[in-house]
Amino acid sequence: MADRFAALKPYFPKLGSPQTSNPDKTELSYEPCPNGDGKSVYNPPREGRSHHYEALYKGEKEGSGEKPWWDFHVYHLPLNPNHVKYAQELYEAVRREFPELRVYRPLGPHPIPMFEVNVFNPLQLGALMSWFVQNRGPCSVLIHPNTGDDVKDHTTNGTWLGEKVPLDVDLLRAVDAMQAEKKEGQ
C-alpha cells in the first residue's frame, strides 16, 4: 500500500529526537520487569543518575538563583467571588509553604488575573508541581521553562494543571522583536 502522506512529508517540520544523557544505545527489551507489577517493563541499570535530577531545561545547571528556571502562573476567574477568595488564600498558602521561592504580587499582562511563582532547581519544581496538583482548587496553573523564547515558553513549552487559559502572546512577540532589534543594533 502506498504511503498516502509521502507527498506531504517534505513540508512537515522536523521534530528531532528526545534528549537522553545515557550513552547506552543497546536495544531495549519489552519483557515484563521481574520485580514489577506485571505491566511494567524491565529497564536496564545505568551508571549514575540522569543529569535531569540536578539540571533543568536542556541540561542547564543550577545557577546563582537570580534567573528562574521555571515559572508557575496561577489564574482565577475574576467575576466569581469564590474563585477570587480561593486564589487569595492560595497565594498566601504558597508564600507560607514555600518561603524560599520568588512569589510576585498579582500581575499582567494576562487575560485574567494571576500571580506568578518562580522556581530555581529541580527539587523546587517537583515539590511545587506536586503541591499545586493537590491544592490548586478551581485555579488553572501554567507551568513553563524560561529558555529565552517567551512566546514558545508560554505556548509550545508550557503545560497546564486544570483548564487551559487562552493567552494573547502578541505582547510577548512584541517584546521579543524589540530585544532582537536591540541585539542587532549593538
UniProtKB/TrEMBL annotation:
One Pfam family named in its UniProt record: DOPA_dioxygen
What InterPro entries has UniProt attached to this entry?
Answer: DOPA-like_sf, DOPA_dioxygen
Q: Where are the transmembrane segments?
A: none
Would you say which domain of life the source belongs to? Eukaryota
What SUPFAM superfamilies does this protein map onto? DOPA-like (SSF143410)
Region feature Disordered, mapped onto this chain: 1-47
Report what the protein is called: DOPA 4,5-dioxygenase
Q: Which organism is it from?
A: Trichosporon asahii var. asahii (strain CBS 8904)
